[in-house]
Design a protein that fits this description.
mainly beta; ten-stranded antiparallel sheet
């Protein structure tokens, strides 16, 4: 997903909440411009956060192996969809793309709310930790 596509999706998003990210346990970055949506592939969902001017963003997803309640997954082992790229672009312009990771999500209100946490390791040797609470109600 490129920056223009992220910006377009966020501008029309009705999602509220936040995604908080730390790179190697550094200073947390809190994204309040967020998007939580079902992916075209079916039951999986994406979580996107960005700063106002898109200097920094995060894109996450979960594989959709659930009906409701909680979901846990290992990245990339449990993912079969091509929409499942996890990226974090930090404020310095560095892109951290996941090689391996994990996510735990709790869904509620008929899948309209999601909260979760996880982490991933990137090719540059960094670890990205994240947590989120988002809602489409």
């Amino acid at each position: 997903m490129d920056v223009q596509e992220i910006q377009k999706k966020i501008q029309t998003s009705k999602t509220t909440g936040s995604i908080t990210v730390n790179l190697d346990r550094g200073k947390p970055v809190k994204f309040t411009n967020v998007l939580y949506e079902r992916l075209p592939s079916g039951n999986s969902h994406t979580f996107i956060g960005q700063t106002d001017k898109v200097e920094s963003y995060i894109v996450l997803s979960e594989p959709g192996n659930h009906k409701s309640g909680s979901s846990e997954a290992k990245y990339t082992k449990d993912f079969t969809t091509p929409y499942s790229i996890w990226d974090f672009k930090d404020s310095g312009g560095n892109l951290h793309r996941a090689l391996v990771g994990e996510i735990s999500v709790q869904f509620s209100d008929n899948m309209q709310k999601a909260s979760g946490k996880g982490s991933f390791s990137s090719a540059d040797g960094q670890t990205v930790h994240f947590s989120f609470e988002v809602s489409n109600t």
